Amino acid sequence: MTELAGKTAVVTGGAKGIGAATVALLKKHGARAVSLDIADGCDVTDEKAVKAAYERIGEIDLLVNNAGRATRKPATELSLEEWNQVIELNLTATFICSRLAHPYMKKRGGGAIVNLASIMGFSGGIFPNASYQASKGGVVNLTRALALEWAADNIRVNAVAPTFVRTDLTVPIFSNPEVLKIVMGHTPLGRFPEAEDIAAAILFLCSPAARCITGITLPVDSGYLAR
């Protein structure tokens, strides 16, 4: 029920971390998976660039909105430019990529979108990170809104909400033993998910196994939100 043969998937931020793990897993399950990443010359905050990339790809059945960034600092020290940069990539690009993918999926008779939210979309968090938390809360509700709007087109829209995962984005967390100890204190299972664990949740939500699931955000959080 996780077979994706004949499906074309687009993964934003697919060059490394969770995105790269997702590209690899989708390919393993038969999909043609294409990465859209700034490292490869595609800025997913640029509507024209995304539109041109989609035209080159030609068909889209699955979209994973994974590209994201964070600026961890107190709100009183966060500049408007830094705020805008986080919101633009984490939330606005998710909207742009989804809206532009809609006609491709509708033409194919349906599709699936999986957004990368975060436990910080449901929680005030542990550390100051206002722009990231606001953006991911927006992703959670954007997911619900698009799921309802596009259900009639047989387009399912869901999200995953990871806890701290060892990627370039979390180097400041995993490289500081004292900070890591604090985070582990909020992790009941006593282990953090790897990028491949998040990719597995994305695969499930993309696949026929989740054909009756839409509008949900699935935590992959080692128990963080259960507290």
Task: Report a brief summary of the structure.
With 227 residues, the protein is an alpha/beta fold. The chain is built from 7 helices and 6 strands; from the N terminus they run E-H-E-H-E-H-E-H-E-H-H-H-E.
Q: Could you describe the 3D structure shown?
A:
42% of the residues lie in helices and 14% in strands. The longest helix has 28 residues, at 80-107. With 227 residues, it is of the alpha/beta class. α1 (17-28) packs across α7 and α3 (80-107) runs parallel beside α4 (130-150). The chain has helices at 17-28, 47-57, 80-107, 130-150, 171-174, 177-184, 195-206, and strands at 8-12, 32-36, 62-65, 111-116, 155-162, 217-220. α3 links the parallel β3 (62-65) and β4. Strands 2-1-3-4-5-6 form a 6-stranded parallel β-sheet, sandwiched between helices. The radius of gyration is 17 Å and the shape is globular.
Q: Which word captures the global form? A: globular
- N-to-C span: 32 Å
Please describe the biggest sheet, giving its number of strands, its sense, and whether it closes into a barrel.
Answer: 6 strands, parallel
The side-by-side strand order for the widest beta sheet comes to 2-1-3-4-5-6
The percent range for helix content is 40-55%
User: How many separate helices?
Assistant: 7
Beta-strand fraction estimate:
5-15%
Quaternary form: single chain
- Provide the structure class: alpha/beta
Number of strands: 6
> Mind telling me the C-alpha Rg?
17 Å
Order of helices and strands: EHEHEHEHEHHHE
Low-confidence stretches: none
